[in-house]
C-alpha cells in the first residue's frame, strides 16, 4: 500500500478478507474522540458480500456517538484501548444495549481488532456475519489482527507523507523553510523546499550544520550563538526569534527571520532545536527605505539632523579622526527677496548637487536648516580638510547657478558664495558632538566676519560668535 493510494489499498484488503472469511461485512470505524460519557466514531471503510449488507452510507453511521452507559460496552472500549481483540456470538451474549444494537443490525457473530497508529488507538477493524452465529477465535481473528497491523502501517505512512506535504505547502505559501538540528550529533533535517532554496539537489541525503551556519552572515551567526547560549539554562522561555542575513543559492544576503524552539527530552535535557526560516526581505526593504527617508531633508535630499547623528555614530564607530565643515550661503535673504522663494528652493537643491560633486561617497552632507549645511568627513588631516573646504568655496564661487524659468528661454543666472568654518574632532574624550559643532560654528562666524566667501579653521583664538553680533 503506497502512502498516496492508501485508501484504495485498504479497500482492496477488506475485499480480500471478506471472501476468505465468508463474512457478510468487513468494516473500519475511525475513532474521533473518547468523551467521558460517549465514544465518537466515523464509519470510514466497508466491504459487503451483497448490497443488502451495506451500511457505510447510512446517515446513522456518520460521526456516530455510542454512549458509555452499558457496562459491557464500557469494558469493550477499555479493552480496545488496551489493544485487545474481541469476538462475539450474538445469540449467547449477555442481554443489554450492545446485544440489542447488534441484533438490530441483524448480526449473528462479530470479530473486532483495534488499529493502533503510532501508539494511539486510531480505529477498529471488524467483520460481521449476518448468517452464522460462529466463534471467530483462531485463524479468523488472527487474519484480522494481521490486517489491522497492515492498515496501521498504511495509515502511519499516509500521515507522515501528508504532514510533509502540508509542511511543503506551508513553506510555499509563507515563504519559509522548516529545519531541525539534533544536538547530540549536529544532524540537520531541512524541508525539501528549504534544501532546494539552499541549492542542494533534491536527492541530497543530509545538510551539514557547519555548511548551513556558513550561510549566515558572520554578525548574525554570532548573534544566533549568543541567543542560544542565553537560552541554555532557561527553564521556561525556550523560543527565540532573530532577524538574520542568509545567503541562499545566490551570492547576495537576504533578510530572513529565524524562529526556533529548543526541544527537551523527558529528563528536561535539550535534544534538538527546530524552527522556521522566513523570508522577510520585503519587510526589511520597506523598513530600510522608511529609515533612510526619515534621515533625509525633503527639499534637497541631503541628510537631516537625525541623519547627521547617525553619520557621526558611524564615524565614531570607525574610530576615524573627523572634521566638521559648516557652511552658510552668503546673503541668501537678498537672493530670496530678489528672485522669490521658489527660485531660492531650486538654488538650495542645486547647491547640494554642486557640493556633493566635491565629496567622497562616504562623506556626510547635512542640511542643518535654512541655508546652513554641515559636511562630516573622516580620515583627513587638518590641511586636507581645509583644502576640501576651499575647494567647496571655489566650486560655488566659480560659476553662476542656472535656474530654468518657465516664461523665459534663457535660464536665470545667480551668482552665489558660501562661507565656511572647519573644526577638528579631538581625541579628547570630553569633546561632545555639540561642542564640535559649536567650534565649527565659531569658525564659520569668523569667516562671515572676515567678509564672507572665505574659509576659517577653528582655533581657541577664534572669536566666539556672540561677541560681534551687532556688527553683522
Ligand atoms: N527659498 C528658501 N529660503 C529659505 C529656506 N530656509 C530658509 N530660507 C531663507 O534663507 C534666508 C536666510 O537669511 P539670513 O539668515 O538673514 O542670512 P543671509 O541673508 O544668508 O545672510 P548671511 O548668512 O549673513 O550671509 C532667509 O531669507 C530665509 O527665509 C528654504 O527652505 N527655501
From TrEMBL:
Its EC number is 2.7.7.65. It is an enzyme of class 2 (transferase). It holds the Pfam family PAS_3. One of its GO terms (molecular function) is diguanylate cyclase activity. CDD domains: GGDEF, PAS. Gene3D superfamilies: 3.30.450.40, 3.30.70.270, PAS domain. SUPFAM superfamilies: GAF domain-like, Nucleotide cyclase, PYP-like sensor domain (PAS domain). It comes from the Bacteria. InterPro entries: Diguanylate_Cyclase (IPR050469), GAF (IPR003018), GAF-like_dom_sf (IPR029016), GGDEF_dom (IPR000160), Nucleotide_cyclase (IPR029787), PAS (IPR000014), PAS-like_dom_sf (IPR035965), PAS_fold_3 (IPR013655). Residues 320-460 form the GGDEF domain. PROSITE patterns: GGDEF (PS50887). It catalyses: 2 GTP = 3',3'-c-di-GMP + 2 diphosphate. Its cofactor is Mg(2+). This is diguanylate cyclase. It comes from Halomonas fontilapidosi.
